[in-house]
């Protein structure tokens, strides 16, 4: 089980990540995620222990 996904940072660097768990709700609809884990140079893969989805902007409160 688990799923693989691509990460792209603000500089355009790409990295393949794998999370051995359930895909978070709204994962496909989010633009930003926080991924906790470690990089395996031997596998050329980021092994994610946790994947945290940032709420889409439509759910964030507006500051007035």
Structural summary, described in words:
By secondary structure, this protein is mostly beta strands. It has strands spanning 3-8, 14-19, 33-40, 45-53. It has a four-stranded mixed beta sheet with strand order 1-2-4-3, with no helix packed on it. It is globular, with a radius of gyration of 13 Å. The termini are far apart.
How would the blueprint of this fold be written?
Elements: E1 3-8, E2 14-19, E3 33-40, E4 45-53
Parallel strand pairs: 2-4
Antiparallel strand pairs: 1-2, 3-4
Main beta sheet: strand number and arrangement? 4 strands, mixed
| Class of secondary structure makeup | mainly beta
How much is the radius of gyration in Å?
A: 13 Å
Q: How much helicity do the residues have?
A: under 10%
Give the strand order of the largest sheet, numbering strands 1, 2, ... along the chain: 1-2-4-3
C-alpha termini separation = 44 Å
Number of strands: 4
Mean pLDDT: 88
Tags for this model:
single chain; 64 residues; mainly beta; 4-stranded mixed beta sheet; 0% helix
Question: What is the structure about, briefly put?
Answer:
The protein has strands spanning 3-8, 14-19, 33-40, 45-53.
């Amino acid at each position: 089980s688990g799923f693989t996904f691509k990460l792209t940072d603000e500089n355009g660097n790409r990295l393949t990540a794998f999370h051995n768990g359930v895909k978070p709700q709204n994962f496909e609809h989010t633009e930003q995620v926080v991924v906790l884990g470690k990089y395996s140079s031997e596998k050329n893969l980021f092994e994610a222990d946790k994947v945290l989805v940032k709420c889409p902007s439509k759910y964030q409160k507006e500051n007035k």
